[in-house]
Amino acid sequence: MARLQGKVAIITGGAGGIGAATGQLFCEEGASVVLVDSDAEAMASVCADIRSRVSGATVKDLVIDLAVEASAAQIVAATTGAFGRIDVLVNNAGIRSYEPLSEAKSETWQKIFAVNLLSYAYLSREALPLLRAGRGNIVNVSSTHAFNARAGMGQYDVTKAGIVSMTRTLAFEEAKHDVRVNAVCPGAAFTPFHKKRFEAAGRTQAQIDAEAETTCLMRRWATPREIAYPILWLASDEASYVTGSALMADGGRLVI
Ligand SMILES: NC(=O)c1ccc[n+]([C@@H]2O[C@H](COP(=O)([O-])OP(=O)(O)OC[C@H]3O[C@@H](n4cnc5c(N)ncnc54)[C@H](O)[C@@H]3O)[C@@H](O)[C@H]2O)c1
Predict the structure, then answer these.
(1) Cα(101)–Cα(158) distance, rounded to whole angstroms?
(2) DSSP H or E run through 11
(3) Kindly report the CA angle at 122 between 37 and 39, in degrees rounded to 5?
(4) What are the structural domains, with CATH classification, of the chain?
(5) pLDDT tens per residue across span 139-192
(6) Residues acting as catalytic residues
(7) Which residue's alpha carbon is at the smallest distance from atom 41 of ligand 1?
(8) Numbers of helices and strands, H then E, in the chain
(9) Can you tell me the distance from the alpha carbon of 22 to that of 50, in angstroms, rounded to the nearest whole number?
(10) How far apart are CA 54 and CA 50, in angstroms?
């Protein structure tokens, strides 16, 4: 249980389902973790949970808006101020939009690009000097829908495809500095976001479960922890020969 012993990791979207699960798992594996999110209340609750579940967890929360470019430098400064180094950056924050492309508004495009794509680019850029110093790595959270077209979430899916492209180019550019860059592409993971969405729509648990039965080979939703494990593996030295990859963690959704 020490795959990240002595490492310092930044995880964006740390108050959400996958970010919180990744934060907990990284703490269990010995990392010092900075969780970044704009939701102060959820963040406080996630940090308290991690501290109660993982004895000796070192977790710092940073409440900041990732849609603002200047936040990236502030996150890096706060992390080095607290821990003196950065070994792993997990770009995970994401928002959704549900406008068909024929009706897609400029404000929505700009907002979703700012969070889902540009925050990944700016934070990577600011963290790279530190990552280069310690042969660190970046894990970008994309989606199975980077590859798997569907109707109704085109703006989101474009950002997720952009993340895969950015991952590959950055892997190419940073290999000479021994920095690895990879993506994880989750399928349907049952996070608080989906729980709230289904509650608002008045869906029963049976209806929620049924949704996953036909849409992936595993016939069920993933837990957030099942996405956190592939992120952990890519971030760890066990993946020392892996860079530029997009690891599907989608229960086989892509192949059906
Ligand atoms: N859950 C899934 O089924 C699924 C599937 C594929 C990909 N993903 C991707 O995984 C990542 C995490 O998903 P999740 O389900 O845990 O989502 P989530 O909504 O639970 O968490 C996302 C977090 O990002 C934070 N965030 C949003 N905008 C922000 C901003 N401007 N500044 C700072 N923080 C901000 C939110 O407050 C939230 O805590 C996302 O990138 C998502 O697109 C999720």
Answers:
(1) 11
(2) strand 8-12
(3) 10
(4) 8-188+222-255 (3.40.50.720)
(5) 999 999 999 999 999 999 999 999 999 999 999 999 999 999 999 999 999 998
(6) 156
(7) 94
(8) 9, 7
(9) 10
(10) 6
